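Page header: ASSEMBLY MODEL / three components / 887 residues total.
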Amino acid sequence: MLRRQIPATVACLVLAIIAPFFSGYAVGVLVHLVALAIAAVGLDLIISRANMLSFSHAAFMAIGAYVSVILMRNGWEFIFAALVGIASAAIAGFLLAIPASRLSGFSFALVTFAFSAVVTGLAAGSQLISIAGGESGLSVPPGKLFGLNLFNPHTLFYMALVLLLATMLVCTTLIYSRTGRAFRTMKESEAVAVALGVNVAGMKIGVFALSAGIAGVGGVVLSQALGAISAPTFSLEQSTILVAAVTVGGLGRSLGPLVGITIFVLLPEIFQGLQDYSALVFAAVFVVTLIVAPNGVVGLVTSFPSSVRQILARKGEGPGGFGTQTPSLSSDNSSKVAS
Amino acid sequence: MNVAVQAAVSGLTLGALYGLFALTVVVLWRTAGLVNFAQGSMATLSAFIAYFLLIPLGLPLWVMFLLSLLIGAVLGAVIYTVVLLPRSTGDHYNELFRTMGLSLFIVAFVQRSWGSGEPYPFPSLIGSGSVDVLGFRVQWLQLLTLVIALVLTFAFAAFLRTPRIGLTMRAVASDREVSTILGVRVRFVIMIAWLIVGAIGAAIALLFTPLYSLSSDLMEPFLLKGFAAALLGGLSSFRGAIIAGLIVGVMDAEVAVFLGPEWRDVASFILLLGVLLIRPSGIFGQANTVRV
Amino acid sequence: MTGSILDVRQASVHFGGVVAVDEVNLAVGAGSTHAIIGPNGAGKTTLLNAISGLVPLSGGEVLFEGAPLNKLRARQRARLGVVRTFQNPALIDALTVRENIQVGLYTQTKSSSFEEALGLPRALRREREARARADAVLEELRIPVEGSTPVGALPLGLRKAVDIARAWVAKPKLLLLDEPTAGLDESEIGEIESALARVKGEISVVVIAHHLDFVMRLADEVTVLEFGRVIANGPPTEVRSDPAVIAAYIGAADDD
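Prediction written out in full:
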């Protein structure tokens, strides 16, 4: 089970080793990347395991970021402010999921969509301007953790990386535990899960709260990386991009969220000349990926050897061999491929 | 009291548009089993195309309005053909994500071409005058919007009753698999649905521009309230969509007057969550049974 | 009737205007195997769904060990020891046979999701116990498959067997089996039958089946449903020679 974690861990270790050679700016971009990746790991958990679609994960990041920043501006220690911020995101997820857990997939997605619009509206709006800063947002006081200054991008990067690894570890452990198996049964058939004694609504609410809390962790890290937060950072569009990233990366695969986020964060940095067109290019990349590689980039790469094998086998056996099966986004093909 | 009624009148206008938006959501949901996240951006794009293509021609406004509906319909058909048909796996999440990517694409395209949030002067379909109805001042524009919205709704209802296409659509809506077995061309029906959705979307955008002015974020209010109306209506009821749209619109206007405009979104959201907490299938939806 | 573990009294289920189950009475003796047979659409699965709480009763009541179940949700009934299988087993293809069977232990494993996510010692210990129990059930039911085989690779017969093992592993008091033999060939039916014969007497079983020979060999008592109503009830040999049953069943028996 932890074997699945190896590629992602190696990727993180490589990043950790080469990071000291990067400039402050480059490391800043990396922290940004890792912060989003943390949220993406949480998002992947609910989409691929619990079959719940969320367009509100940037909003949960916003809650984590705003609450922690507001508390720090009121003199709180970073660590406590961060914990309360993360808890707030989880509680928001919990409350949202109570009515929403009874809905079908699409209706649930629409509710999270609406929630996201409301949260950004409140963050930028005049109702909470005295604490959330309205349109101009808030500046972020640099945090200190165990005497280390998080204002230093390298320090922040290592903290973020540790958090990302811990998040992935927790999610993987959970997926392969009793709870994770109950989830997978639920995904196959809710009736079967219920008949085996699983509290379906409770499980959905719980995992959604966990996922929201993880997004909150990403939000806290992102706020530290940015130095200033405002509503557009956490907009509905950002939530959509998170969903796009985990999908393009490959749902339900440990490397998926990392690859997806990397594509969406790094490519604009690389193609800065494209500035004007970058949003267009990314939307196009997203749509084309969905059409060409419904299992995402990681899915495409891992299934590559087996499709080659299939083609070879087909040659051997002549006509009558069956083409590649139509892959389905919502089913987990990873272990079938591995086996 | 007077203020409340006045607000309700403008709320009904807005609500009719929310209802129309919800109607398009329901149309696609029932025929294609799909929620189209690009609904709002498609409508914005239609309005921009109408602005740049039709206004220079100097046509009468009503001709322009009808031509815009045509543009919207064509846009819907093109999107269905280019974005949803290729390598269709039948996986609903995949389809949903495609519309999401499409939405990002259209927003990026509109912002890149015509600026982010920059307003364009779109001519109103009607002058600014007003009329007294039962002692309340109602702007012609509001009245016209309400009338067109209702006409579109009834036209759609009548269309569903036409023997050939309408009935086929309802057959597909009620059971896609059985319809396939019966030989109904499901793709054809879904194509019709996209044409309708595109046309109604263009109508919404055009009716909304005088209230909001044409810009890249024209349809933003609909993302929350249009979808909320669709959910409140039960996601599968045409009548429910319109009524829920009117409810959301009126509440929107009342909240704006009595609590302040900044609370409108929050109020709609609380209404949505509250209703779904009590009735997960919406006001007019059918209660789900456990599938075994 | 005393000594029965399950009492279904005057149970009715209506779907809109359709009466799927019509005032059905059923008593399952403790430790006995009770078969429900009948033509397609007779309401067998609906009755099972009503017993396990997946559809609400429109009338009547269901008593389990003398206590009414009506107000309990499906998962609460499962916790009481009423466990069932489905026509379509809904196993997790990506996981192994052992892991799938462990799902059946969901309610009996005392560790929290929190402990599991963090991989705390207690959760790991419970996990090891659950694995051992899953393997033991494979052994007990003589299911000829390795615990580490991915379920996706199994033929239907073995999938059905794993489904039964998943229900059986929790040691339920009452096991409800929905068409355990549907779609299987003779040798596969034989395997299911021998697995069930092994647990016979230990617990009470309600089984829906199409396959008459299978029912006749396995059941202590048979209830025949037609159009939602009970048309016959009694020991297999008696029911088999009942003219009403023969009349109702001839068409359906040809289907298989």
